[in-house]
């Protein structure tokens, strides 16, 4: 058998394995989602959103988890988006291309693959203990900001690299300064990719549990936070608490909360797609 035929055979086998594994994963996902929906949809009601958690399943709700998640995500997005985009702009437009920036780039890429629990330990040591923020919303939000910051930087860099050089050269030829080129040409062209990466990263932070356990998120909260220094819980923490209980009704409550969390995550992903398409159409127009 010739090398060409052998290569084609290997490619067919590889594509077949990829397709089979994808179909298997899709079937497993459909089965899991079906089981969750069947267990949880009966518990979805207005009271489920208005009530705090309780020792009695029929009185339990996700109000504290929803409010806590909202506080956390606002802090996470407020810190990670400007810092991440600013770092990407510096690395792409200002930083010299030498061995030092190569080391920084490699470390940023490596940080994007670090397990989330490691960021939780970092948040516990830095924000909770060293800075003295305590086991508060601020500590949780900053920890999640660190978690998604490398992802935002990498996605923003890819978006900035996609800007055609002809556009930048044309702006420079018209007498624009570097900052005018960045704000008037580079960022408007790259904003669809930047927003997409940012929203997907924030959606990942919304579903995290391990880092928040490390920084002291509570599992039972019958209150809504009033400041960034208050104790908190989140929707994933609420799900974790309910699934650890032996009663079947709490497991059904967890399934209902998972449905809500999935709806929020799918909405965030859909928003990312809509924003990307909107800005791409504006650029083409």
UniProtKB/TrEMBL annotation:
It is a multi-pass membrane protein. PROSITE patterns: ABC_TM1. InterPro entries: MetI-like, MetI-like_sf, Phosphate_PstA. Gene3D superfamilies: MetI-like. The chain crosses the membrane at residues 12-33, 70-91, 111-131, 137-160, 181-206, 253-275. It is found in: Cell membrane. Pfam families: BPD_transp_1. PANTHER family: PHOSPHATE TRANSPORT SYSTEM PERMEASE PROTEIN PSTA, PHOSPHATE TRANSPORT SYSTEM PERMEASE PROTEIN PSTA-RELATED. This is Phosphate transport system permease protein PstA. It comes from Thermohalobacter berrensis.
């Amino acid at each position: 058998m010739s090398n060409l035929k052998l290569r084609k055979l290997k490619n067919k086998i590889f594509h077949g394995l990829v397709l089979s594994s994808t179909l298997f994963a899709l079937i497993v996902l459909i089965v899991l989602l079906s089981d969750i929906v069947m267990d949880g949809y009966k518990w979805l009601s207005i009271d489920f959103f208005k009530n705090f958690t309780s020792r009695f399943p029929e009185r339990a709700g996700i109000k504290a988890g929803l409010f806590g998640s909202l506080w956390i995500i606002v802090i996470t997005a407020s810190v990670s988006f400007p810092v991440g985009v600013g770092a990407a702009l510096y690395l792409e437009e200002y930083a010299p291309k030498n061995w030092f920036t190569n080391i920084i780039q490699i470390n940023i890429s490596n940080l994007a693959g670090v397990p989330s629990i490691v960021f939780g330990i970092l948040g516990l040591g830095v924000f909770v203990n060293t800075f003295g923020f305590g086991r508060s919303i601020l500590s949780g939000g900053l920890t999640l900001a660190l978690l998604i910051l490398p992802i935002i930087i990498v996605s923003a860099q890819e978006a900035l690299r996609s800007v055609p050089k002809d556009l930048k050269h044309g702006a420079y030829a018209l007498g624009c300064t570097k900052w005018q080129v960045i704000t008037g040409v580079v960022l408007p062209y790259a904003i669809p990719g930047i927003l997409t990466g940012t929203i997907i990263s924030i959606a990942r932070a919304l579903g995290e549990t391990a880092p928040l356990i490390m920084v002291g998120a509570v599992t039972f909260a019958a209150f809504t936070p009033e400041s960034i220094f208050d104790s908190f819980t989140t929707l994933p923490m609420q799900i974790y608490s309910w699934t650890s209980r032996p009663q079947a009704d709490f497991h059904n409550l967890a399934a209902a909360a998972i449905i809500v969390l999935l709806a929020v995550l799918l909405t965030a992903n859909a928003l990312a797609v809509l924003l990307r398409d909107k800005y791409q159409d504006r650029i083409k127009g």
